[in-house]
Amino acid sequence: MLAPMRLSEIAYTDARPVTGYGPGFFRIGAELHRGAVLILPSGPVAWAGYGDTAALLAAARTIDVLFVGTGAEIAPIPAAFREALEAAGVGVEIMASPTACRTFNVLLAEGRRIGAALIPV
């Protein structure tokens, strides 16, 4: 079992970084989210998994890359999920959720147009 992790504090503008994660949850800004979550420029929302693409496709004009955190370990994602996003012009990067959180925060601090789809560890 993984211990909860707190990430380094960085000054962000209006964006909301991942400030912590642990078994079954993510902390985005000061807000706790249990289960899978999408982090989009409009803010974080609950995510029902790979079949739930509506919010991602609606945000396609506002993000260039989506970081997909597949849980504690990197794992394949369904081809249909990747294909739908890429057809909408969104790049997809797959990684373990802890790595996705860190990468998301670094690029968020740089002002990049990014999103994240995270499955808890």
Your description of this structure?
- It is a single chain.
- This protein has 121 residues and is of the alpha+beta class.
- Helices cover 22% and strands 31% of the residues.
- It has one domain (5-118): Hypothetical Protein Mth938, Chain: A, CATH 3.40.1230.10.
- It has helices at residues 54-58, 79-87, 97-109; strands spanning 5-6, 18-22, 25-28, 31-34, 37-40, 43-46, 65-69, 91-95, 114-118.
Helical percentage: 10-25%
Classification by helices and strands = alpha+beta
Strand count, sense and closure of the main sheet? 5 strands, mixed
Per DSSP, what share of the residues sits in E-state strands of 2 or more residues? 25-35%
Shape: globular
Ends apart, CA distance between termini: 9 Å
Element order: H for helix, E for strand: EEEEEEHEHEHE
CATH superfamily: MTH938-like
How many beta-strand segments?
9
Name a few traits of the molecule.
121 residues, alpha+beta, Hypothetical Protein Mth938, Chain: A, five-stranded mixed beta sheet, four-stranded antiparallel beta sheet, 9 strands, globular
Question: Gist?
Answer:
The protein has 121 residues and is an alpha+beta fold. The chain has helices at 54-58, 79-87, 97-109, and strands at 5-6, 18-22, 25-28, 31-34, 37-40, 43-46, 65-69, 91-95, 114-118.
